[in-house]
Amino acid sequence: MKNLFPILLGILLFGFGCSSEEPQQPDPNPSGEEEPTNENPQEQEPEMVTYFTFEPFLPTSETDDWIIIHDSDGNLLDYMPYEYDDVLEFQILEGNDMPNDLTITLFRYEGILEGHIQHFIKSYPEIPAGSIWKQTSDPQNINGHTRADATGSFNITTTNLVSPKYQTISDKNGPIMTRSGPDMEGYITDETFNNVPIYTENEFFYSIYDSEDELKYHVIEEAYDGDDIVVDYSEFKPYDSILEVEIPDHPSYFVLCIISAFESDQPINFTGGKSLSFIISEIAAPNPLKIGFLDTYNKYHCIFNFNNEEYAYNYIKYGDKPNAITIPDTPTITVEDSSISNYRFETNLDYRMKDVFWEVSEGENFVDLIKTTWNVYSSPEFVGPIGEIPDEIQETYPDLRINDLMLKSTMLHLDFISYPELIQEEFVNPDLKTYYRSRETLQFKH
User: Fold this and answer.
1) Where on the tree of life does the source sit, at the highest rank (predicted)?
2) Can the peptide bond before residue 128 be classed as cis, meaning omega within 30 degrees of 0?
3) Total of domains in the chain
4) CB burial string 149-166: b at 16+ within 10 A, e below
5) Which of 27, 75, 254, 347 is most enclosed, with most CB atoms within 10 A?
């Protein structure tokens, strides 16, 4: 028995040691990577994509202003009112189809003055998605010249004339006195201009278009208050170059031709310059009508307008003299659809941009005037559609009368600016805007 006790004690101690240790389990993730969970990750908010940005910098305190956006099929995308200095971002959900082209319509309501309610609508189709527009004020006539009171006057008599049709006396700041006629029943050999005003300049330019269709000019180098100047027509000089303009054969028309020349250090402006030609004619004008230019000038402002009951041709150019002024002889237009949404026409003219104009008007200005106008500017290729004005806007302005709008004119820009250039200057980079923009247009009257 003595020898059995140590054996039993050893077995007991061995059993106690084994029972006091936790049994080892196999490692469920021997690689050390984070175990996946059955929980869903937090869903992300859908992102928005801006398809058009609009920043208006026009005064809006006395008007209601809206912007309306349609897609190229005429479907309404969005619209909202805006105020000066807003930044409007038009957005769609990322992943949605981005519209290829937009039609941007700007709506303005003027009704703050009693008896003066006007709605102005202007639409611009084919605008690329993602465009950023800035709406700014029209450029100002920064070079405009305003005359002070006259400091004196003089008289000038021209002898041995060839019965002048058109005469103009001007200084460097524009025409001072003009005269047309006489009718061809009389013949004038002497002509006197009395009390020709003297302003800040005492050098004058005297131009004559005579009855033999000759253009001549005379420079009065100095004229002072009270002078009586006599000059013989033989002292007048011919112009250095002549541009002839063919006048279309039409029983009744109006012609305006104003050619102004500017000195090298003188900025071009709308009303100033020495008047090389100043012709206003409501009767048969010379045909071809001649325009004179002088080699001593390389800065001009040229205006030529031909207007009859069917159409009006208008040419305005700033800068060097024109190489040609060509009035379309027999312009034609056939309107196939006169609606705003799907306006279509055929013409025999080539042009770079069109401006189509609809209007409805009644009443007298500042008495009971109610008027709505809608212009659609577009490229030659564009044929619609133009989307409708949203119901909310039509209900807000019950005098809008969209359904009563009538087609009034189709203006085709023949030269100087295309539709993409207009958008660039007007909205994308308005720093390019200028008051002195050259243009050549023909406007059909409907």
Assistant:
1) Bacteria
2) no
3) 2
4) eeeebbebebeebbebbb
5) 347
| 193-242 pLDDT per residue, tens | 999 999 999 999 999 999 999 999 999 999 999 999 999 999 999 999 99
Whether residue 198 sits in one domain with residue 297: yes
Q: Evaluate whether 445 touches 311 at the Cβ level (below 8 Å).
A: yes
Structure-token match 């949203």, residue found: 390
The pTM of this model reads 0.86
Handedness of CA 268, 271, 274, 275 (dihedral sign): positive
Query: In whole angstroms, how far apart are CA 278 and each of 40, 234, 281?
Result: 83, 21, 10
Rounded to whole angstroms, the Cα distance separating 314 from 423 reads: 21
> Which residue, 359, 374, 353, 342, is CA-closest to 420?
353
Q: d(Cα 63, Cα 108) in Å, to the nearest integer?
A: 7
> How many whole angstroms separate alpha carbon 6 and alpha carbon 12?
10
In a domain, 1, yes or no: no
